[in-house]
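Researcher: Sequence of RNA helicase follows. Predict its structure.
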Amino acid sequence: MESETSSKEIKTFDDFRLNDWIVRQCKSLGLKIPTPIQINCIPRILAGDDCIGCAKTGSGKTLAFALPILQKLCEDPYGIFALVLTPTRELACQIAEQFDIIGKPMNLRRCVVVGGVDMVLQGQTLSKSPHIVVATPGRLADHLESCNTFSLKKIKFLVLDEADRLLGGHFDEQLKVIFNELPASRQTLLFSATITDALQKVKAIAAKKVFMYQCHEEQTTVERLEQFYALCPPGVKDSYLVEILRIFREKSERGSVLIFTDTCKNCQLLFMTLNEVGLVSVCLHSMMPQRQRIAALSRFRSNTARILIATDVASRGLDIPAVEMVVNHNIPSAPKDYIHRVGRTARAGRGGTAISLVTPRDVKLIQAIEEAIQIKLKEFKVDDREVVKILTQVSVTKREAAIKLDETDFYEKKNTNKKKKLIMEGKDPDEVEEEQKKRRKNMLKKERKKRRSEMQDRNGWMVETINNGENKESIDDKDNIDEKS
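Model: Prediction complete. Tokens:
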């Protein structure tokens, strides 16, 4: 890792030698003292270096790249000047808002390019060459492949926010399309809360010198975050969750809770269940239309709804300062995902609580998380007698919600996108679906055959064991008769 710049020389935003209007905007937001990642990265970015920055959630990573980009933009204003890529739509909108606030005095023009919004309107905005483009890889790749009304050949900055997720393999095809349209001469900035092998490889193969800053603190979660686990049997997680929310409400009537679960369907089911049992909530997952996603986040941020149930689409970058508690309805398989989830609370010096619902099957996952964060989670005691009282109500409510959900076209959007992708690849969706059905049918046949074979082997072994037992008994009987005679 490169040696850090001297942090002793920088104590306020004035010390970065940014334009006066940028410093004024920072002060108007109540920002007086820069964070360590800002102190170390901003001078190097202003000096023209490529940069990889890693620090815990809530440490000011967005401003670490936004401030130097705006400084360079006002020195040589043109569009498109900078491209910022993020893995989720909500994070893209949030970054764009921060650029808006800081860049207001210079009449900053920016464009958010995400799915769920009219492509024609986005194309028109892009054709006007905005200064900053904030995008998710999928939608930007769609624009680049379908129209030529804008160009990325002159951008000065490329930013990958939540770079570990972007470079994790899920976006490889889209990033290939985007990178083919970028100039060779540019500054590349990568920011994340967790350093992965992918980021280390980027540094190793970089064409020019890369400055890398990584927070030295061994603890990857903030000190003011209290972290607990609650033991529960696998089949009654929802009842334990309702009881935990009831306990939290007794202590903090107006506090906000963010609940993470694993799949879109489970997220929707949990949302329907909690609302039916009297816990007003909103949900956020990738199967929702963009308008509903924005509305759900707005209701949660404004405290109209104090419970947000979400998939990992809400685990990265979202800054909702009022969140007092994070609940993991399922334990993430990767410790870094746990770090991102619990990072939604205890932000900007505030306190917070994280509770993970743990079944016997999750013990190894919890141990891996404790090793990664170097903290032992404390047990959160839940009264089993109180859970038993609500168990029937919660279970019946969830079954009814599941029946209602099955009656809707919940996976319609997913299936439509799958068909669209197949058509773009020149394949017939109906033929592919027929092949998949045949493949599943053959797999089921093989499994049945395997089970029958196992049953026959087991039965043969049992018959042999019984016969051996009978033979042994007859020999013992014969021995007893001989002894008596």
